[in-house]
Amino acid sequence: MPSGPLLTPTKWLALGLIALVVGGLIFLAGVGLGSHREIFLSSQGGMMGGSREFSAFGIPLPHVFIMRGGHGAVGAIQSVASSSLVVSLRDGGAQTILVASTTVIETPNGPAHLAALQAGQHIVVIGEPHEAGDRISARLIRVLQ
Question: How far apart are CA 59 and CA 65, in angstroms?
């Protein structure tokens, strides 16, 4: 039987290089999958209503705002009524948002009610299209500022 170390420094170096190559291949596979996912999502209309941005008014949005099949709006509040509000969109249009008792409204200071919202505040809305087709029934309203 040979006496001496089981793994010589040359063998350690070879094992280290193999581990480095395998790790690099795994990393490149992850990058490739991520880029294919981004291409797929952008071909399906992208994130949040066709926008490929992950921010609103320069404020990065967490991934919780990116919902499959969700409808929403990003803009400044024009007016607030008892069960709805109107949002000025970035493209110059306006969107009516219907607010139900189940709608979650979040502000930087915590949960709020519709009456606490004011014209000029920037918001992100996630919801479903209303039966009439020209409105959004809000599930979540997030006040950005």
Answer: 12
Tell me which long-range contacts 53-57 makes (C-beta under 8 A, separation of at least 24).
56/122, 56/124, 56/144, 57/122, 57/144, 57/145
DSSP letter at 118 equals -
What pTM, to 2 d.p., does this model score? Answer: 0.54
**Eight-state DSSP code of residue 106:** E
Is there a contact between 56 and 122 (Cβ–Cβ < 8 Å)?
yes
- In the block, tokens 């926008």 appear at 51
- Tokens 């089981």, residue? 6
What is the rounded distance in angstroms from the CA atom of residue 69 to the CA atom of residue 21? 40
Domain segments of the chain as ranges = 1-44, 55-143
Query: pLDDT tens-digit profile of 67-99?
Result: 445 578 889 999 999 999 999 988 888 999 999
User: For residues 22 and 63, what is the distance between their CA atoms, to the nearest angstrom?
Assistant: 30
C-alpha distance across the termini of the chain, in Å:
75
- Which superfamily does CATH assign the domain made up of 55-143 to? Nucleic acid-binding proteins (2.40.50.140)
Query: Residue 73: phi, psi to the nearest 5?
Result: -155, 150
